[in-house]
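Consider this one:
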Amino acid sequence: MSRSRIRGVFATTLLAGLTSLGALQFACAQTTGPASAGTGASSGEKTSERTSAGSAAPHETITAAITPAITPAFAVPIANVPGKTMTALVVDYAPGGKSAPHRHGQAFVVGYVLSGEIRSRVDNGAEHVYRAGQSWTEKPGAHHRVSENASATEPAKLLAIFVADTNDKKLLTFDRK
C-alpha cells in the first residue's frame, strides 16, 4: 500500500471518528483505482463517492481529474457563542486539482490560502485567484461553483474554516451530476 493511500485511509478513519464524536460534521469515503508509483493518483480519471452525513441521497458520485485531499485540523465549540462550533479542514490540491461544485449548508465559511494559488467562484460572482495569505468568505447556503488549484504545475493548500451550529450535519454537500 502506498504512503499516500495510507494517509488517505488514515484521514478517512480520522474523519469518521470525529464525525461519530460530533466534533466534525463531515463524512468522506473515497474509492480509487490503482495508484501511480509515489503519487497516490490513479493512472487515469479518478472517481470518488462522497456523502454528507444526514443527506437524503446515500451517495453522490463525483468524477474529476484530481480531487483534493482533505485533512481535519480542529473542531472546537465557540465559548462565547453557545451552540456554535468552529471547524477547520486543510484542503491539499495537487497541480490541476479541483473540487466538484458544492455547498456548506448553513455554515459561514472562511477560505484562507496557505500556499500556492486557488481559483474560486462563489454563487454568481466572478472567478478570482487567491494567493498565499489571501482569504474570502462564503455566506451560509452559498454555492461554491469553482474551487481549484490555479496552477497545473504547483500544488496549493487551503484552510477552510466553518462556523456552524454544533448539530449541523451538512458542512459539505457536493452537487449531483
Observations:
- The longest strand covers residues 84-93.
- The helical segments are 3-21.
- Confidence is low (pLDDT under 50) at residues 2-65.
